[in-house]
Amino acid sequence: MPETDTKYRGRREDQRLVTGQGRYTNDWNFDGQVYAWFRRSDRAHARIVAIDTEAAAHSPGVLAVLTGRDVADAGFASVPPLQPPNPGGQKVVAPERPVLARDRVRFVGEEVAVVVAETQAAARDAGEAIEIEYEDLPVLIGFENAMAAGAPAIHDNIPNNICFDFQYGDEQKTAAAFARADGVVSVSVESPRVAPTPMEVRGAVVVYDAASDSFDIYSPNQGGPAFRDDLAVMSGVPAERVRVRMVDIGGAFGARTSPFPEYPALMYLAKKLRRPVKWLSTRSEDFLTDNHGRAVSLRGELAYSKNGKFLAFRTEWLCDSGAYLAPAGCLTNSLNGKSIGASVYQVKAMYGHHRQVITNTSPTNAYRGAGRPEANLIIETLVDEAAVKLGVDALTLRARNLIKKNEMPYHSPTGVVFDSGDFPALLAKAKEASDWKGFNARRRQSRKNGKLRGIGCGLFIEPSGGGHAKQDEVAVLFDRDGNIILHNVAG
Fold first, then answer.
1. What is the pLDDT of residue 477?
2. pLDDT-based confidence at 474, cuts 50/70/90?
3. Are strands 183-191 and 104-105 parallel, antiparallel or unpaired?
4. CA–CA separation, 474 and 225 (whole Å)
5. The pTM is what?
6. Closest C-alpha among 215, 324, 322, 230 to residue 270
7. Do 234 and 77 contact (CB within 8 A), yes or no?
8. What are the backbone dihedrals phi and psi of residue 72, each rounded to the nearest 5 degrees, phi first?
9. Is the pLDDT reported for residue 93 higher than 80?
10. Whole-angstrom Cα distance, residue 66 to residue 69?
11. Distances from the Cα of 61 to the Cαs of 56, 117, 260, 371, 449, in angstroms?
12. Quick one: which of 189, 247, 181 has its CA closest to 218?
């Protein structure tokens, strides 16, 4: 009998991870390690009147207690949000986000103070002994409250609580198409706020090396260089003195892209104490403070002719940014919507209007789709509504309006080029695979059995990666001698 080759040939990390040999953030420990715990706001909006840390500082095992005022001169800074190119010209207006709140708190869970102690339990016990006196301020939750006339400003530099106004397409051409349309449908949809829940809670271990005045960071992240560069901005430490160690990561989907305010505070403490500092959040903390996703309210309109040809789309987005701006939140809630604003349908005109609104809630960021599901949702809901109003089969109406293969490359009304695609063939395959024509028979049989049966369809397209402007194209080849050949072709 020939020997069977049982060598595992899957991904190189699979064997290690599925046999319990993964090494996540909490698995890293160092000699002399101490533990941090963050005291957080239990108010959505309040002025900090006073913070009494006396009891915490004298608790057993405590090595340091810091508040926002203690680190006011530490050189901390906010990472500026990514600025989407905006035809309207307005840039994102960004508020400062302190590493530890100084004069005000603006959402439940915001970092107010941090305690370091010899054990995790001692740090938590001391943190809970901190006494904070608040003066409550008006809380703005929801778009109506934040955008209401006379609503107080959550940040002084954003007087109307709208930090970004983004428009694209041709408003006048779209209005003209609606004026001559034989029919119009309008819908409103909600994409509710969600909290990320990776299997691994957030945390970090920071090790300071006094000889080189440098830091080693062990923390779950989705890209070491970008994480390092943002952390350098936040901490005021040159990037060449920040080393982000790539550890195993228990889930991310956007929630582990950028560093959070806890990390520069840990760096400050590691240098101050000359000891490694570990912090591990709880699931409850993650629920409050990991950048949330979604929180978008959309309204859309579709204008069509009497034979069911689409003339124009018009969409309006209200996007809840939360109390502070995460780096990619405004970008993904604007450019992704613009790129696929009219989806895969032929229309002569399109107009989109997005507003990013500041509220007293957790900041939102790119997470699990990052504006793409919302852009598809509003268009597909409009198409379904038009099919009902026209009395036309939903797939038939879609097929009638799809961009054809021979029209590629296709220039969309939002200024984006689709380089390839065969959407009619895709729809035809879906129709056949789902036995769309046989649905009515299946429905009748279900009724006989006392059951309800429904059917639905939706086309989905999304921009991938950057893709919003001309990019350099890079090809990496490996020759037989083990050499790497890099080709760079300007886009």
1. 73
2. low
3. unpaired
4. 19
5. 0.89
6. 215
7. yes
8. -60, -30
9. yes
10. 8
11. 10, 5, 26, 46, 68
12. 247
